[in-house]
Structure formats: C-alpha cells, structure tokens
Amino acid sequence: MTQPLIPIDQCPIQIEDDRTGTNVETLKRAFADNLFYLQGKYESLATQDDFYMALAYTLRDRLLSRWLKTMKTYMEKDVKVVYYLSAEFLMGRHMGNSLINLHLYDRVRQAVEESGLDLDEILEHEPDPGLGNGGLGRLAACFVDSLATLEIPAVGYGIRYEFGIFTQAIRDGWQAEVPDKWLRFGNPWEIAHPDQAVEVKLGGHTEMYHNEKGEYKVRWIPANRVVGIPYDTPVPGYDTNTVNPLRLWRAEASDDFNFDAFNAGNYDGAVAEKMRSETISKVLYPNDNTPQGKQLRLEQQFFFVSCSLQDIIRTHLLRHPSLHNLHDTAAIQLNDTHPAVAIAEMMRLLMDEHEMDWNTAWRVTQKTFSYTNHTLLPEALEKWSVGLFEYLLPRHLEIIYEINRRFLEDVKRWYPGDDNLISRLSLIDESGEKYVRMANLACVGSHAVNGVAALHTQLLKQDTLRDFYKLWPGKFINKTNGVTPRRWILMCNPKLAELYNSKIGEGWLKDLSQLKQLEKYVDDPDFCQQWREIKLHNKRQLAQYIWEHNGIEVDPHSMFDIQVKRIHEYKRQHLNLLHIIALYNQIKQNPDQHIVPCTFIFGGKAAPGYFMAKLIIKLTNSVADVINHDPDVRGRLKIVFLNNFNVSLGQRIYPAADLSEQVSTAGKEASGTGNMKFAMNGAMTIGTLDGANIEIREEAGEENFFLFGLTAQEVADTKAKGYNPRDYYSSNPSLKAVIDRIAAGYFSHGDKELFKPLVDSLMYHDQYMLFADYQAYVDCHKQVSKTYSDQDKWTRMSILNALRMAKFSSDRTIREYCNEIWNVQPVPIEMEEYSQENA
Ligand code: CGF
Questions:
Q1: Which residues are CB-neighbours of 773 under 8 A, at least 6 positions away?
Q2: How far apart are CA 149 and CA 66, in angstroms?
Q3: Would you say the CB of residue 691 lies under 6 angstroms from ligand 1?
Q4: 565 labelled catalytic
Q5: Predicted complex ipTM
Q6: Which of 219, 362, 512, 816 is the right S-S partner for 806, CB 3.0 to 4.6 Å?
Q7: For ligand 1, is residue 34 a contact (CB within 6 Å)?
Q8: pTM listed for this prediction
C-alpha cells in the first residue's frame, strides 16, 4: 500500500537539516551543497554568479517553511486577503533583505568568510530587479514589505517582465539605453507554478445566446488566447513568520493555438504567433507619469489583471460556494489606473462566467475595489482609444458602456440639465476621437479613492477629480505614502542603525516613533560626534564609488547636495543647474570669494522618448565638464551625474546626503518618496510646498527645513494673471547671466544650438515656473550654506529630521489602508521556532 506523502512541516521528526538549519556550520554546508548540486560547480571553478546563486538558494530554502505555513494558515483560517495590483514592483535586491528579515546577516557573513569568500562581493552580484520606473513601483515594493511585517494576508500581483527598466549609460554626456537582461543567469528567488496557469482571451467579438435557464447572455468569442504562468517570490516580513507571495505573471502562447497552426502546416505562423503572445510580458514601458497609448501596453494591463482576478476567484471558490461574498475575502487595490480595466474584467467574470446578475456583480465589484491616484499631471491620466479597446477587449467595452449608461442616468437624476457635468464625468471622452477614461472607470468602480499626500488628495478633490468628489465626498481619502525603514535605514545605513540599537534597542524597526526617545541626545556632544562620523563614513563610501565610476575626485567634507529621481521638467533638475551656474558666475567674477565647498550629485533616468529630459541630462554633464575642470573653481564646486540610478544605487546615495533637493513646481509632485528616504537618513531638505514635502516639514519642524518658492495656489494665480518668464529674465541680472551663459554656448563648446530648445522653453513658456522661483531658490541656498558652516547647528537639524520621520514609515501607511480602506486584520503565523543553537 502506498503511504500518503506527509508534508515536511508535519513530519513527526523535525530535523535541522541543510535546508533549514541556521548555525554557521550548517549554513556553510548548505552553501557548498547548493554550489555543487544546483550550480554544478566545484568551488575552484565557480564564478561570483555561482556563489551568489548558491547563497540565494540557501536563503530561499530558509524562507520556505514560513512561506508554506503562511499560505496554509490563510487557507485554513479563510482570511480576508489584500490583493495589490500593480504594473510595477521595484523590489531592489532580495539577498540583503532576506538576510535581514531572517536575522541571518552575521551568521551568513561568518559562514561565507569561513568559506574563503566575501559577502559584500556576493551581494553586489545580484542584479537589481528593475520591474518599475520609479516612485510608484518602489512604493509597491515598500508596501509589500510592510504588509508582511504587519502580518497582513496579502498578495502582490504584477508582470514578470523579461526586461525591466533599461540600464542607463552615459555617452558623450547623453543618456543611452541598454537592455536590462536581469534574468540572464536565472532568478533564484522565484518559484514557477505552471499548474496554476490561467488563460487570457484577447480580441474577437461577442455574441448573444440563451443559457440553460433560457436567459439571454453574452459570450466573448476571442480571436486569441494567451496563457499566464505565475512566478512567486517570497516577501518575508521583518521579525515575523509571515512570508507573503509576490505573484508575477509571464505570458506564454496557448498550446491549442499553436497546435491549430502546426496542423495546418503553417510552422512559421505558429512560431510568429507564439512570439507575439510572449511579447506581452517581454518589456516594461520606461515611462513614468507619461502613458503611451500603445496596444501592447493595454495588452499587458489586461493580461496581468485577468490572470490575477481569475486567480483571486479560484482562491475564493476553494472555500466558498459562490462569489456573492467575494468582498469579504478580497480587498483589491488598483495601484494607479494601469490595472483599472479590472473593474470591467471583474464584471465580465462575475456575469459571463459565473452567472451573476448585473446588480449583484456591480455591488460586489464596488465593494471589492479601491483605487490609488498617483498624479495630478493632466497629460498623465490614462485613456485608451475606443477603437483599440473594441479591437482588443470587445466585451469589456460593452460592459464599460453599460456601466457608463447606468452611472450617467444617476447623474442626470442628481443634477438635471447639467450637460457639462455629464460630459466631464462620462467614462468616455467624446470631445474628439473617442477615448475610455481609465481614472473615471476606477473612480466609479471603487468604494474608495485615495491620493498619496495631503496636498495631492486636496488637489484631487478640488481639481483633477472634483466632479467625482462632488458626487461621493465620502469615497475620497488621503493616504500619505511611506517607505520601509528596513531597507531605507537598516539595510542602507547600518552604522546609523547600530547607533540607534545601542541606545534604544531594535524596537524602532517596527515602530519608528520610538526614535523620538533619542531627541534627548540632540545636544549631547558624543552623540552628535557619532552622528557626524556616520555621515562622513557614508559620504566617504559614496566618494569612493564616484571615483571608481566617474573618475571624479570629490571631497567628503564638502556638502553633498543631491537630487536623484526621474528626470522630468516638473521636478526641475534644471533649476538646480541654474543655481550651480549662478555660483560659478560668482566665482568667475571673484575667484577668491568665500564659498562653501559643495558636491552636487544628480541621478535619474529619462523616458527614452522625452527629448527635453534627455537634454537636461546632457546639460548636467556639460556643466559638470566645464566647472569640474575650471582652475578658478579650485575644486570648491564639483558636479557628478551618477548613471543608472536604481534601488541599489539609492541605497548608497540617501545615507550620504547632506542636502536633499525636492524642488518640484508646487502642485505637480503627487507625493515623492525619495524625500522621505533622504530625511530618514539625516539629510536636510531644500524644497517647495509640494507633495509630501509639506508633511515632512510639519514633522521635522519649520525651523529644520529650507523652504522656498511659490505655493500651489500662487502658481495657479500667477499663471492665471498671465505669466511672462521674460519679465523675470530682464529684471534679474543674476538669472540673466546664467541663461545667457548657457545660450552663448559656454557649456557646449560654443555651439549655441545645442541647448536652445531648453533655453527657449524657459524663456518663452516656462511651464514649470523656474524663473518665478529662481531668486527664492538662490536665496534659500545662501541660507543653507550659512547653516552648513555652523556644523553644530547643522548636526542638530539633521538629527531632528531623522528622528521625526515616523510618519513616513510605510508601516503607518499600510495600517491606515488596512483600517480605513481594506478592512483587514493581521493574521499571525504560528510556528515552532527552530532552535538556532541546536541547528
Ligand atoms: O508616484 C509617482 C511617481 N513618479 O511614480 N507617480 N506616478 N505615476 C509620483 O509622481 C510621485 O510623486 C509619487 O510619490 C509616486 C508614488 O505615489
């Protein structure tokens, strides 16, 4: 008789073996074992990649029992789960995170060292999985970390792009894009589950039919089918047993389809179709805040949404006979409008595939979904041409029309005769070519809509989504963004973490407000001295990196003034450049004048098709070239553009900053999250009253923040009055000198054409009002320099900034989502602790 297989965690004899044990000897054995059996290498022939892979498997093994137990607990307890739908997850490297969350850093370091290797080198070998553009994708990654840490049942759903965000190279000062082959050597962190593959339909047409009960129904006859294969990556919580999955879908051609073509002898056609299907998960669109109306992008969105919803429904039906109570087991969050087609797909699945009537399906849908808006830029609000929608998703378009019809009926009843209101609220933009407005769909189909910082939510209510706010004020809620202190303090700034631990223990890592207790040391000379030493240490490390990568020698004692983020005109990297050139002009006029030595560091990618952003990169490098080599400057100003800004580079940069540049035009940056990472690591902010800057200033204290510039209201008022940038140019000699220097070709070897588009755009439009804010910004920088010269004062301000950032832990943000939007509770995962001593 065959014996049923006993799950490993229920085996009567628990053995601390090579896959679970955590003492140094066991770790060493496991590492060697994986190198031999999984990488197929002797140590003498192994490369750094082999070592990295072997160590990654060693760690993944140690996550598995917690991971499977987490899944089993959720199933058995039939808990409500948060499903976070996001087209981007910018996770950053996994290995360091796993070491921290498994509390294995020291033992693994020892095991690796005793094996004759260097852990830091191995850590550096992990490719940075760049499955996101910037803030939105990184926010999703911080959120899944906090969800697991807070023991919230959650699944992140997204796309397993074969190519993530491009690698940025700098050639002759210009950005060049290089494909990101992050999967080249395989991905040891993920586990594929082809058994849970789902089919996704595309194209075709719909038809009416009678079902068995004699009712009229609609069915979708697709032209094409694609299969979604899930790949799960464990997301361990810090200091808990919870390990939640990040489930990313890969597109594969459906066998049926190929088979037909093969049978017909059309081999090329079958292969071409296979490639076409698999293209869906090939590459991440490298645009941030600028949607591109490309068919493939809509296919990507629908693909991962359909896979995920089918998966959610399957999970629900394992424990419930019907879908009427789906909202009791599932809270689905739409991270921006990229997954908003989920509203229509859920309706289709409920009605067409699960026989639910419209009203019930709509009630379930609305109760299940909530939507986060991430942008105020009107050009960034996604819309899809009705023609494309109909071609790819004919059934969904019908459903959207019906949602719209019913919705507008209501509006007409509530606001009779207001046709303008109707056309603004409509899910279909009919002002010219017809478009489906995804934000409108998301607002109508969700029970909650949130912005990502207080000002942003306020502006959504009074501007971008004001008509919806008027209809449903109760739906709108603010959820100020946050970032995980595990990655953004502990992992990236270990010396600072050590200092905190030595004073108050490790509790702050799960409750950042505990840092407030350290305020009593703000005047303690020893503490301040240690604080300065840590910053200097971090600056030295960054200086070393700059030397190795850019060949530029920078002085770690100079002020590190840093702006790293996507390059975008609204973020105003060029305002920063104008100030640098103004300082340079001063030096040229009077080379002996006192100037606080400063290293200006930039980093960030530009969307490949965004000419002006690319020109800003070129200008940065050109200004750097001239100023860094001018003997009059005597090294007092250095400018560095660090190429390929990504999560790993961010981990080096934030801890080394003295000054954080957050200078977007007020009312344009929804929140920002880099601003939080800088402040948590003790950088002072120079910033406008925009996004989360406002709240950072409130928390840090007005006196600990360098504020400048117009408010969002003043920006609007100035524009309304008729803004003319040339007035500022002609009345401000310093500004004029700066612009004239660029226009004269001083930074382009006399070429007056190169930067003309940038100069003209400022002189004749200046959409983001750099000129209006120029003088305030320059003056504010004077204040910064003066303060920096008083190191005691600066240190005090830096300490207070870092200690007062509790609000910006993503744990706080996630708790608010749980309580106010998702209605979910923590579910602790009970496990017998493996004794680390006996292991
Ligand atoms: O989302 C952003 C970022 N660029 O990804 N937007 N989008 N789309 C906003 O511009 C940021 O201000 C915001 O912090 C981030 C996450 O909410």
A1: 575, 663, 665, 688, 708, 709, 710
A2: 13
A3: yes
A4: yes
A5: 0.98
A6: 512
A7: no
A8: 0.96
